[in-house]
């Protein structure tokens, strides 16, 4: 693969519990707003966890009606609707919808764990087959815009959209495509998912104070918080973007995806697999440890992830570690599962572009073992040139993106 092919980001779109477009989300994240509240969409009385970072379905429904005709949006679940909304925003920001180009050289790759079509309900619903297609977001995108290149979905747990982004970069580097539209969506704030994660003791149960339940890197962290959302990035070959005079938000300098081949839910001991993934990504990007200014951490607020991710950063960056800002977007948005890598990658690009690092909120009682600079509670203004965005999923699926200021 031609690593000398520059891959740049020319468009981004995002939905979360804090906003329905990129601008709303960015402003609220900078201000340390919290999207985590008591669940309102179903009865939680029998659940151990009664809160999450929900996205308002009624607003999503109204937005998708502006983009697709009734026959089409009736065949979409909430998950798919969020995915196509963020994707349309990213494409519009990129200006690709107004460009005369070879449509066979545009790929669409989306990270999807589930279409969230109430899978525990045994009765088939209308449009059941189309609604349950995991490739629905990428398929509807190609139908709307006429893109005819590779079109598929990736499912690799919490690293799904990281894998989609890495694959998009590889397709551009290979010369197969000029453009890759990549991202992910997730609407897993559903009873069966909350119940399932409760069964494996993965979720916080701090029901008395849901707003402060997600506490990455704190001694009192007791599990992650489910979130909903979608994020999409438009990746382009730099020469293609330059020739069409595209606005460039940042550069995807390098990346890595790996398998730990270890436990089905726990990361490899002491963060060894996490460190290896970051190291491979930095080698791919051709950068040294001294050049990294910021890490958008996976930062789930679970005991092992936060401990091992900290250990991985320390083992790699050694005496450089104190000079790196680290933050967890999940402290505000919860864990958006298949969408988190894309959402956090977008936030990282915005940090590079604007010189602002979003905070890790709820940093109430720091863990003495975890003593890095987690950008606690308030945003930090800092000129950053290179940043990492980490994603580590169940099954040992690890992903790391290296992003550079343009």
Structure, explained:
It is globular, with a radius of gyration of 20 Å. The strands form three sheets. A ten-stranded mixed beta sheet has the order 5-4-6-7-1-8-14-13-9-10, sandwiched between helices. The protein has a two-stranded antiparallel ribbon with strand order 2-3. A two-stranded antiparallel sheet has the order 11-12. The chain is an alpha/beta fold. The chain is built from 13 helices and 14 strands. The protein folds into two domains: 7-250, Peroxisomal Thiolase, Chain A, domain 1 (3-Layer(aba) Sandwich); 255-404, Peroxisomal Thiolase, Chain A, domain 1 (3-Layer(aba) Sandwich), CATH 3.40.47. Helices cover 32% and strands 19% of the residues.
In short:
The protein has 406 residues and is of the alpha/beta class. Helix content is 32%, strand content 19%.
**Arithmetic mean of pLDDT:** 96
Just name the CATH architecture of the largest domain: 3-Layer(aba) Sandwich
Q: How helical, in percent, are the residues? A: 25-40%
For the record, the CATH class of the largest domain is: Alpha Beta
Major sheet: arrangement of strands? 5-4-6-7-1-8-14-13-9-10
What is the overall silhouette? Answer: globular
Number of domains: 2
* Stretches with pLDDT under 50, minimum 5 residues: none
CATH topology heading of the largest domain: Peroxisomal Thiolase, Chain A, domain 1
The class by helix and strand makeup works out as: alpha/beta
The CATH homologous superfamily of the largest domain:
Thiolase/Chalcone synthase
Rounded to the nearest angstrom, the distance between the terminal CA atoms is 23 Å
Radius of gyration: 20 Å
Please provide the ordered H/E string of secondary-structure elements: EHEEHHHEHHEHEHEHEHEHEHHEEEE
Main beta sheet, described?
A: 10 strands, mixed
SS summary, helix count: 13
β-strand percent reads 15-25%
Number of strands: 14
């Amino acid at each position: 693969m031609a690593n000398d092919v520059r891959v740049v980001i020319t468009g981004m779109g995002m939905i979360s519990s804090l906003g329905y477009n990129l601008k709303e989300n960015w402003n609220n994240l900078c201000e340390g707003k919290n999207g985590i509240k008591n669940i309102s969409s179903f009865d939680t009385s029998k659940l151990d966890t009664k809160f999450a970072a929900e996205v308002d379905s009624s607003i999503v429904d109204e937005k998708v009606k502006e983009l697709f005709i009734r026959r089409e949006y009736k065949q979409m679940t909430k998950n798919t609707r969020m995915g196509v909304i963020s994707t349309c925003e990213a494409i519009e920001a990129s200006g690709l919808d107004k460009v005369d180009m070879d449509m066979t050289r545009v790929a669409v790759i989306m990270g999807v764990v589930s279409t969230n079509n109430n899978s525990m309900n045994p009765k088939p619903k209308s449009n059941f087959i189309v609604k349950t297609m995991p490739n629905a977001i990428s398929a509807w995108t190609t139908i709307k815009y006429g893109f005819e290149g590779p079109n598929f979905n990736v499912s690799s747990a919490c690293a799904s959209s990281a894998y989609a982004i890495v694959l998009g970069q590889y397709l551009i580097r290979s010369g197969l495509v000029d453009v890759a539209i990549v991202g992910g969506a997730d609407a897993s704030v559903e009873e069966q998912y909350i119940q399932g994660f409760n069964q494996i003791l993965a979720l916080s149960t701090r029901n008395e104070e849901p707003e402060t339940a997600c506490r990455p890197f704190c001694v009192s962290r007791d599990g992650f918080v489910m979130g909903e959302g979608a994020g999409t990035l438009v990746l382009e070959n730099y020469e293609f973007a330059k020739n069409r005079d595209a606005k460039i938000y940042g550069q995807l300098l390098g990346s890595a995806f790996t398998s730990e081949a270890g436990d089905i839910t726990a990361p490899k001991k002491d963060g060894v697999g996490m460190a290896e993934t970051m190291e491979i990504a930095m080698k791919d990007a051709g950068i040294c440890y001294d050049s990294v200014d910021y890490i958008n951490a996976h930062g789930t607020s679970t005991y092992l992830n936060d401990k091992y991710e900290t250990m991985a950063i320390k083992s790699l960056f050694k005496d450089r570690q104190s000079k790196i800002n680290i933050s967890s977007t999940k402290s505000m948005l919860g864990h958006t599962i298949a969408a988190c890598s894309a959402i956090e990658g977008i936030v990282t690009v915005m940090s590079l572009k604007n010189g602002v690092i979003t905070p890790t909120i709820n940093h109430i009682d720091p863990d003495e073992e975890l003593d890095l600079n987690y950008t606690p509670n308030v945003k930090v203004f800092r000129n950053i040139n290179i940043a990492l965005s980490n994603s580590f999923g169940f099954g040992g699926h690890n992903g790391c993106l290296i992003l550079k200021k343009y």
